[in-house]
Amino acid sequence: MDQAKLMTEDEAAKVLGISNATLYRLRRDRLISCYRVRGRVMFAEAQLADYLARVEQKAESGATLPAQVESAAARAA
C-alpha cells in the first residue's frame, strides 16, 4: 500500500501559498479535505492537488473565485 505524505497546516499553507487563516477557512467550509492524526490536522499531497485542480477548473470556466483563492492558484501554477 502506498503511504501518502502528510503535511502539517503550516506546510500545506506554504505549498498552497496562502495563510494558515485562509487554510482554516477552506477546511471549515469543507473546500479542502484533511485528516486528524492524534489531534493534529494533517493534509495529504493528493488532497492539495485535488483542491488546486478544482480551483483551476473553476477559474478556466469563468466562475468567480474569492481573491485569496485566486492568488493561491496563481502562485501554485
Structural topology:
Elements: E1 6-7, H1 9-16, H2 20-28, E2 35-37, E3 40-44, H3 45-60, H4 67-76
Antiparallel strand pairs: 1-3, 2-3
How would you describe the overall organization of this protein?
By secondary structure, the protein is of the alpha+beta class. It has a single domain, classed as Multidrug-efflux Transporter Regulator, Chain: A, Domain 2, CATH 1.10.1660.10. The chain is 56% helix and 13% strand. It is built from 4 helices and 3 strands, in the order E-H-H-E-E-H-H. The N and C termini lie far apart (29 Å). The mean pLDDT is 83.
Gyration radius, rounded: 12 Å
Unreliable sequence segments: none
- The CATH architecture category equals Orthogonal Bundle
> How many separate domains make up the residues?
1
Instruction: Write down the CATH class.
Output: Mainly Alpha
CATH topology: Multidrug-efflux Transporter Regulator, Chain: A, Domain 2
Shape: globular
Strand order of the largest sheet: 1-3-2
Helical fraction equals 55-70%
Q: Largest sheet, described in full?
A: 3 strands, antiparallel
Number of continuous helical runs:
4
Averaged pLDDT: 83
Give the H and E element order. EHHEEHH
Structural class: alpha+beta
User: In angstroms, what separates the terminal alpha carbons?
Assistant: 29 Å
Summarize this entry quickly.
This protein is of the alpha+beta class and 77 residues long. The chain is 56% helix and 13% strand. A hairpin with a 2-residue loop joins strand 2 and strand 3.
